[in-house]
Amino acid sequence: MELSEYVQKGFQMLADPGSFDSNAFTLLLRAAFQSLLDAQADEAVLDHPDLKHIDPVVLKHCHTAAATYILEAGKHRVDKSTLSTYLEDCKFDQERVELFCTEYQNNKNSLEILLGSIGRSLPHITDVSWRLEYQIKTNQLHKMYRPAYLVTLNVENADSQTYPKISFSCNMEQLQDLVGKLKDASKSLERATQL
Amino acid sequence: MLLDLSEEHKEHLAFLPQVDSAVVAEFGRIAVEFLRRGSNPKVYEGAARKLNVSSDTVQHGVEGLTYLLTESSKLMISELDFQDSVFVLGFSEELNKLLLQLYLDNRKEIRTILSELAPDLPSYHSLEWRLDVQLASRSLRQQIKPAVTIKLHLNHNGSQNTNVLQTDPATLLHLVQQLEQALEEMKTNHCRRVVRNIK
């Protein structure tokens, strides 16, 4: 995990009890996680009375450094020992190391979900709806008397945030074919998970 | 239910008794072929020369026969009704039998062709699937994210579209369950009653 000098410098400042007392440290740490994980968070996350006494430039630097580190750590799925080692290298005292690790552990799942959801993917099927009809006649063909299905797949496009629908008609045999193939896929999935 | 043949139609069909049965059978074959692939005027000219008549006459004869076959197939009229409808044309016993046979032999295929006219929605053609596991991405390493990638082939207005889609295992099971329910629906009493009673 390569971290820039900027991040390192920010952490060194954060480690210094002279610049950040215990309370300020905790607040800044929480603010960093909040900025990343809370969809509603904005710049106001650093607007706490107990942080007012700190130079805003320093505040922003440390906040950014912490957020950057958290993302990198999340991306590489670092374990507790890697985390502690890095923080100790930045001259964090034991109390602050523990605090950081605890906060990280608490937010780990949300962080991983967030990171996992970023990226390109194929349109994703979210649901299906169907309609069964009995066809009697058209203007071209009378006395049809056959069942037909209309299937609609609800699809989600993560990047463009669009939700197109794919609709198609099929007769009984075709639907059986479709279901058969999907069942094969799910059996295959079951087998794969047992390996 | 009897077919209602217009005067013009009857005139066109009047050509048929003037040629022998082999020719009528041949016209029948041409008519069905034209329904399958579209008409080809050159065929009329060739036939016209051989029979020593104008190509218009041949064309009308074939078209008349085509219309007779498609209308009968569309309405799915019974043998008896077909015979009675054709009877008014005053053809010979032999010709009537030939026309009936033409109808019965080609009815199923003609109905299939007619059903392909103006298909409204894309229809299912086939489906391919593949099991994938995402191991990492630029933003997150060491993942185990199973997914099913699906290639759905649909036919629409003669051309084939392919949709490449993906889904997760939970949704896949949901899809299977929902669609199996759809299939089961046809076996319910309600549907069976409808099918039995609408004829």
UniProtKB/TrEMBL annotation, chain A:
Q: Which Pfam families match?
A: COMM_domain (PF07258), COMM_HN (PF21672)
PROSITE patterns with a match to the protein in the record: COMM
InterPro entries per the record? COMM, COMMD3
One GO process term, biological-process aspect: sodium ion transport
- Which residues belong to the signal peptide in this entry? none
What range(s) does the COMM domain occupy?
124-193
Family from the record: Belongs to the COMM domain-containing protein 3 family.
Question: What name does the UniProt record give this protein?
Answer: COMM domain-containing protein 3
Q: Which organism is it from?
A: Otolemur garnettii
The gene it comes from is COMMD3
Automatic annotation (TrEMBL), chain B:
As recorded in UniProt, coiled-coil segments are none
- InterPro entries named among the record's database cross-references: COMM, Commd2
Under the heading Pfam families, the entry gives: COMM_domain, COMM_HN
Q: Which domain of life is it from?
A: Eukaryota
List, for all copies, the residue spans of the domain called COMM.
Answer: 123-190
Query: What sections of the protein cross the membrane?
Result: none
Record-given protein name = COMM domain containing 2
Source organism of this protein record: Otolemur garnettii
